[in-house]
Amino acid sequence: MRTQPGTVWAYNNWDYNALTTVFERRTGMRVADAFLTGIAGPLSMRDFTPDAVSYTKAPELSQHSAAMFRMSGRDLALFGALYLNQGSVNGRRILPKTWIARVSTDPVDTGDAGLRSGHSYLWWIPGPETGLPNGTFAAFGFGRQAVFVIPAWRTVIVHQADTTELIKRLFGPDDDGSTTTSRLVQMILTCRTVAGDASEFCRQHRFSGRREFDRLVTLIVNARR
After folding, report:
1. Is residue 78 domain-shared with residue 151, that is, in the same domain?
2. Is residue 215 part of a domain?
3. In angstroms, rounded to a whole number, what is the distance separating the alpha carbons of residues 192 and 12?
4. Which residue from 5, 66, 111, 153 lies 20 to 30 Å from 223 (Cα-Cα)?
């Protein structure tokens, strides 16, 4: 479908991966090494190493690779705090203050509601119906990994889950011919049943659906009030 620029908003993970290619070609550095020297080092992250970044390819979807980060909760909290503190840590400027200000002041309306009501410079902007204060922004990763930056509360919230078993089940041998998407849907539906919810996988390793995650955010907002 062809549309006029600026009239329709659409999100595609693989489109964003072009930024990885552009960055690495222009700088001559791997994203992992640049993050280590530019972000992880100055923030004194304790767990990040370049090996924590892996590349995923899907030639049928894009010529660009996805740079997949694995980060601990405490390192992700430090990253969120960098944005909360407007790009500075211990008096040292790491990111431009003006760049961070754009995140909450220059969003694009996605046409959606809830936690993904807006999008701005690779961050999601929650809508007012979530109860989160104006100026809040968030990043989401695979398995509903998340970091929320809430300037009005002077707070960073990190949500993580161990996705090791989930990844094995999603991307393991597809002897039955099922797709990754169909497997994910089946996992979510199974874990919504009484029997499935009682299983170790559903309690410890499963993918958190959007509905469940929205409920968690609501509980946090109500507790803050």
Report:
1. yes
2. no
3. 28
4. 111
In contact, 137 and 121? CB cutoff 8 Å: no
Q: Are the C-beta atoms of 107 and 113 separated by less than 8 Å?
A: no
pLDDT > 90: percent of the chain: 56
Q: pLDDT tens for residues 40-59?
A: 999 999 999 999 999 988 88
Those residues whose C-beta lies under 8 Å from the C-beta of residue 166, and which sit 6 or more positions away, are 143, 187, 205, 206, 207
Q: What is the pTM of this model?
A: 0.87
Containing 140, the helix (H) or strand (E) segment is strand 137-140
Do 183 and 145 lie in a common domain?
Answer: no
Quickly list H helices, the chain.
13-16, 18-27, 31-35, 73-84, 97-105, 164-171, 180-191, 194-197, 200-204, 210-224
**pLDDT tens-place string over residues 69-93:** 999 999 999 999 999 999 999 999 9
Let me know if residue 21 belongs to a domain. Answer: yes
Print the domain residue range for 46: 1-70
Overall domain count for the chain = 3
